[in-house]
Amino acid sequence: MSRHLLWMMICLAMAATILPGGDAAHAAPGYEIQVVKTGLDRPWSINFAPDGRLFFTARNSGRLYALNITTGAVQSFGGLPPARFRVEGEAGMLGMALDPDFATNGWAYICYSSFDEAGNRRNRLSRFTIDLAAGIVTGERPLIDPMVGATHHNGCRVVISPDNQYLFVSMGDAVVPSLAQDLDSTGGKTFRIFKDGSIPLDNPFYDNGRLPRSLIWTYGHRNHQGLAFHPTTGDLWSTEHGPDIMDELNVLIAGRNYGWGWGSGPRSCLGTVNCDGVPDFMPPVAVFNTDSTVATSDMMFYTGSSFPAWFGDLFFVTLKTGRLYRLKIDNRTIVEQEILINGQYGRLRDVTVGPDGFIYVSTDATDAILLRIRPTIERPYRALLPLVMRG
């Protein structure tokens, strides 16, 4: 057989439609997990800035860092931790949101644990100014201070509303469940303020500026450490730690009560159990799980372009089980669930989407890892060609 004829046969075989009984393979769309950086200083909140760097708070050291995803270089900013910074148990430098105009104003909204002048445990939400050129954090402006504090259940997740008007911040019950039902306590609440710290008059419990009830958006929370807005509906969702069962996934509706702190002992409201009579009760969308917890941490809705089929899907990470969940949502109902990471990297703290459309996940460890989920490169069709023997 001539070489010319052999090449013609090869080309025809590659171009031909696959016939019944043929053997061809095509890789289905998928993802791969990459380690981007190791040895990070226990990140708690990870946020991409307009320059493409990943800014993160370090819970234990109270520092602020910026990671160059491309080069791996890490910049540490001076000026932190603040005076009377508190680190113990779950307390420390916690939630952060970068202002949408960060490139020009340098503002970062950070919730952190502190001691007051009398030595009492507290938490505080402040606005800081990050001087990128000088590499320093300056100009702390307290926005909500004080909030209750404890060694555990400090909440402190921060998000900015899609219209760039409001700040929302979560606060745990400071290990005193009854505080979550008390509108005169900051414990177990979600707060809503304008970005300058002023109070919206249409907050559901607004009372002539009386604090803290005028700040409150929702109440009855144990310790919600995930907040995110749905990109289409604008609903504010949260992930919340249960005690030993029933971590919750919630939609946070103004003025509603999510039940924690109602009742006592085995008769406490949890999920939808023992919740009869709870005023303004809002049941969870889902619980994880009825017989255990997964220890939910932060969450996000996917808005990138690298995974078009996942647009609008909800992603959340867990601590105890080290999982990354993907949920497809339809009208506040879960219609599909997938676990993308299942414990192989240890405890997972935060999740976000990068400007490249990839998904980034940070672990919860002293020497933490930053992971990246990106699409696998699809392989072209391949056909099994007949073996040609030279005659």
Notes on the protein architecture:
With 391 residues, the chain is mostly beta strands. It has a single domain, classed as Neuraminidase. Helix content is 4%, strand content 41%. It is built from two helices and 26 strands. A four-stranded antiparallel sheet has the order 2-25-24-23, with no helix packed on it. Strand 15 and strand 16 form a beta hairpin. The N and C termini lie close together (7 Å). The C terminus is likely disordered.
List the helices and strands and how they pair.
Blueprint: H1 3-15, E1 24-25, E2 31-41, E3 43-48, E4 54-58, E5 64-67, E6 74-77, E7 93-98, H2 102-105, E8 107-115, E9 121-131, E10 136-148, E11 158-160, E12 166-171, E13 189-194, E14 216-219, E15 224-229, E16 236-240, E17 247-251, E18 286-288, E19 296-301, E20 314-318, E21 323-330, E22 333-342, E23 348-353, E24 359-363, E25 367-375, E26 382-383
Antiparallel strand pairs: 1-26, 2-25, 3-4, 4-5, 5-6, 7-8, 8-9, 9-10, 11-12, 12-13, 13-14, 15-16, 16-17, 17-18, 19-20, 20-21, 21-22, 23-24, 24-25
Short description:
This protein is mainly beta and 391 residues long. The protein has a single domain (29-377), classed as Neuraminidase (6 Propeller).
